[in-house]
Input
Amino acid sequence: MRITILINELNIRGGTHKQMHRLVEYLIRANHDVTIVTKQYDPDKCYPGIEKFNILSFDKYFKDYSKMNLLSKIYNKVVGSYKMSTAAVKDAECINIHDNGFGLISYFIKLKRKKLPVFWQINDLPPVFSLGNSKGEHGNWTYGLRKRFYIRMAKNVNQITVNVSKNALRVKEYLGVQAKVLHCGVDLRYTNFNGRTNSGEKIRLLSTGVFLAYRNYETFLDVQEKLSKMGYIVESAIIGSTALNPGYTEKISDLIKEKQLNCRITGDIPEKELIDIYNNSDYFLFLNIDQSWGLAVFEAMNFGLPTFVSQSVGAVELLNNDVDSMIVDPLDAEAIAIEIDHLQKNAAKHQLITRNAFDSTLKMTWDKMYSSKLEKIMIDETSCRKA
Output
């Protein structure tokens, strides 16, 4: 089957981008012909192996709009969207819109090929709905118009898929259609449990995620500070691109200096260095506020790391508190620090949590959890259209 996948940008390593990457790998192995159409592309900033895919990029139309006047913005957005839609529908038997920001492009797609099956993966509702990590955003006069675009788009696609149940409820409430839940998979770097031990007075904390305000790295630093006051020697690292929100990155950097903490912001790093940091960490903290899913949670668990997860993160749907992870209030640094202190002093519970964390990831492969299920949806719907 000839499948086109649309994604906003391929110049960053985020959860949505890994999800798409693993899907494309699976579809190619299953002998499908896959073309990726994107607004921005930089192979050096993507996950390894991206250069093997067939990618059409429209960077010239989706540059930094802050340097354009209003007419130039409108021209580039409309013309770029039209050309992307033309590339997307060419020879395609179905389209997977794997992101938000495609309201206008989806409109052009339907104008060109009304009966072409279109599937929309929504990991978060578009920011114009001011939900989840976009809560509190009011935007400008275009928000109302863009909402109507998305509501119409939702009714015109063949199937919407989401990665967590709470987003299915939001799709039903705000877009007026049903969505199918397809949980994300895990990159299994290990299939045998090597075990972990408490490290006495020294603690190494880790968190990962593209630097955006909802990551709540402030609490991460508060936890480190409280553990230091308990007498621990604490080191920490935060892994993730700093490009999308330099202001937030600067805020966290300033907090590190103010609190005089031994915390390293790494930015995007190669896979080998990423694995080394995971292997040399003691606890993983994912304290995001209303994160849709949280791939990094399960990746950390596959390393056998005791993992602290915000109760507002979608990943808790598959977790068991105090069994394979610790589900916490993301703003209660005191309670998180106390629980880490408890695990440091309780070797039996520490070992049980790390073992359960590792074991729970072994059946959560990308092929099983996500890619094969979406492939079946696309094949079934496309076959029905042809019949």
In short: The mean pLDDT is 92. The domain at 202-361 is CATH 3.40.50.2000 (Rossmann fold). Residues 366-386 form the longest helix (21 residues).
